[in-house]
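Quick one: structure for this chain?
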Amino acid sequence: MMETMQLTMETLAKEMRKEQKEFKQQFNEIREENEKLSMENSELKKRIIVLDDRLERLENEKRRNNVVIQGLTIDRYNQEEIQTKVKQFIENELQVKVKTERVTKLGERTYLMQMESAADKSKVKLKLKRRE
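Got it. Here's what it folds into:
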Protein backbone atom coordinates (compact mmCIF):
# COMPACT_ATOMS: atom_id res chain seq x y z
CA MET A 1 0.00 0.00 0.00
CA MET A 2 2.89 2.33 0.81
CA GLU A 3 4.46 1.51 -2.51
CA THR A 4 1.22 2.33 -4.31
CA MET A 5 0.98 5.65 -2.49
CA GLN A 6 4.58 6.39 -3.24
CA LEU A 7 4.04 5.53 -6.92
CA THR A 8 0.94 7.73 -6.99
CA MET A 9 2.85 10.58 -5.34
CA GLU A 10 5.70 10.25 -7.82
CA THR A 11 3.23 10.19 -10.71
CA LEU A 12 1.49 13.27 -9.35
CA ALA A 13 4.83 15.01 -8.83
CA LYS A 14 5.83 14.22 -12.45
CA GLU A 15 2.49 15.54 -13.74
CA MET A 16 2.84 18.67 -11.61
CA ARG A 17 6.38 19.27 -12.91
CA LYS A 18 5.11 18.73 -16.45
CA GLU A 19 2.24 21.19 -15.93
CA GLN A 20 4.61 23.61 -14.22
CA LYS A 21 6.93 23.42 -17.26
CA GLU A 22 3.97 24.06 -19.60
CA PHE A 23 2.83 27.04 -17.50
CA LYS A 24 6.36 28.40 -17.46
CA GLN A 25 6.56 28.05 -21.26
CA GLN A 26 3.18 29.77 -21.68
CA PHE A 27 4.27 32.50 -19.28
CA ASN A 28 7.47 33.08 -21.29
CA GLU A 29 5.49 33.22 -24.55
CA ILE A 30 3.08 35.74 -23.02
CA ARG A 31 6.01 37.79 -21.69
CA GLU A 32 7.65 37.86 -25.15
CA GLU A 33 4.36 38.86 -26.76
CA ASN A 34 3.91 41.57 -24.13
CA GLU A 35 7.41 42.91 -24.82
CA LYS A 36 6.68 42.99 -28.57
CA LEU A 37 3.41 44.82 -27.96
CA SER A 38 5.10 47.27 -25.59
CA MET A 39 7.75 48.06 -28.20
CA GLU A 40 5.10 48.42 -30.90
CA ASN A 41 3.05 50.66 -28.60
CA SER A 42 6.09 52.81 -27.89
CA GLU A 43 6.85 53.15 -31.61
CA LEU A 44 3.23 54.07 -32.34
CA LYS A 45 3.28 56.73 -29.61
CA LYS A 46 6.41 58.25 -31.14
CA ARG A 47 4.79 58.21 -34.57
CA ILE A 48 1.63 59.86 -33.21
CA ILE A 49 3.75 62.65 -31.71
CA VAL A 50 5.50 63.20 -35.05
CA LEU A 51 2.19 63.18 -36.94
CA ASP A 52 0.58 65.57 -34.42
CA ASP A 53 3.47 67.99 -34.87
CA ARG A 54 3.20 67.73 -38.63
CA LEU A 55 -0.57 68.28 -38.54
CA GLU A 56 -0.16 71.32 -36.30
CA ARG A 57 2.46 72.80 -38.65
CA LEU A 58 0.18 72.23 -41.65
CA GLU A 59 -2.80 73.79 -39.88
CA ASN A 60 -0.72 76.80 -38.85
CA GLU A 61 0.60 77.15 -42.40
CA LYS A 62 -2.93 77.01 -43.78
CA ARG A 63 -4.20 79.51 -41.18
CA ARG A 64 -1.33 81.83 -42.05
CA ASN A 65 -3.01 82.50 -45.41
CA ASN A 66 -6.43 83.39 -43.93
CA VAL A 67 -8.03 86.83 -43.95
CA VAL A 68 -11.24 87.67 -42.08
CA ILE A 69 -13.42 90.21 -43.83
CA GLN A 70 -16.09 92.02 -41.83
CA GLY A 71 -18.84 94.39 -42.88
CA LEU A 72 -19.54 92.96 -46.31
CA THR A 73 -23.17 91.97 -46.85
CA ILE A 74 -23.92 89.08 -49.17
CA ASP A 75 -27.44 87.71 -48.96
CA ARG A 76 -26.60 84.40 -50.60
CA TYR A 77 -25.47 81.18 -48.95
CA ASN A 78 -24.24 79.57 -52.16
CA GLN A 79 -20.51 78.95 -51.69
CA GLU A 80 -19.58 79.85 -55.26
CA GLU A 81 -21.55 83.10 -55.19
CA ILE A 82 -20.00 84.12 -51.87
CA GLN A 83 -16.53 83.41 -53.20
CA THR A 84 -17.21 85.38 -56.36
CA LYS A 85 -18.68 88.38 -54.47
CA VAL A 86 -15.83 88.55 -51.95
CA LYS A 87 -13.22 88.24 -54.68
CA GLN A 88 -14.97 91.00 -56.68
CA PHE A 89 -15.00 93.19 -53.56
CA ILE A 90 -11.26 92.69 -53.04
CA GLU A 91 -10.50 93.39 -56.70
CA ASN A 92 -12.82 96.41 -57.02
CA GLU A 93 -12.38 98.12 -53.65
CA LEU A 94 -8.74 97.30 -52.94
CA GLN A 95 -7.54 97.06 -56.54
CA VAL A 96 -5.74 93.79 -55.76
CA LYS A 97 -5.89 90.58 -57.77
CA VAL A 98 -5.66 87.54 -55.51
CA LYS A 99 -6.13 83.82 -55.80
CA THR A 100 -8.40 82.31 -53.19
CA GLU A 101 -8.83 78.70 -52.21
CA ARG A 102 -12.14 79.16 -50.46
CA VAL A 103 -14.38 81.76 -48.86
CA THR A 104 -16.59 80.74 -45.95
CA LYS A 105 -19.41 82.72 -44.39
CA LEU A 106 -18.77 82.91 -40.64
CA GLY A 107 -21.55 85.25 -39.61
CA GLU A 108 -24.07 87.71 -40.99
CA ARG A 109 -21.38 90.07 -42.28
CA THR A 110 -18.19 88.12 -41.59
CA TYR A 111 -16.27 85.95 -44.05
CA LEU A 112 -13.13 83.86 -43.88
CA MET A 113 -11.08 84.04 -47.05
CA GLN A 114 -8.39 81.41 -47.53
CA MET A 115 -5.71 82.68 -49.87
CA GLU A 116 -3.53 80.44 -51.97
CA SER A 117 -0.38 82.16 -50.75
CA ALA A 118 0.91 84.33 -47.94
CA ALA A 119 1.94 86.88 -50.58
CA ASP A 120 -1.72 87.38 -51.57
CA LYS A 121 -2.64 87.84 -47.93
CA SER A 122 0.12 90.42 -47.53
CA LYS A 123 -1.18 92.36 -50.54
CA VAL A 124 -4.69 92.51 -49.07
CA LYS A 125 -3.46 93.48 -45.60
CA LEU A 126 -1.24 96.20 -47.03
CA LYS A 127 -4.12 97.71 -49.02
CA LEU A 128 -6.42 97.53 -45.98
CA LYS A 129 -3.88 99.34 -43.81
CA ARG A 130 -3.50 102.07 -46.40
CA ARG A 131 -7.30 102.56 -46.39
CA GLU A 132 -7.38 103.15 -42.63
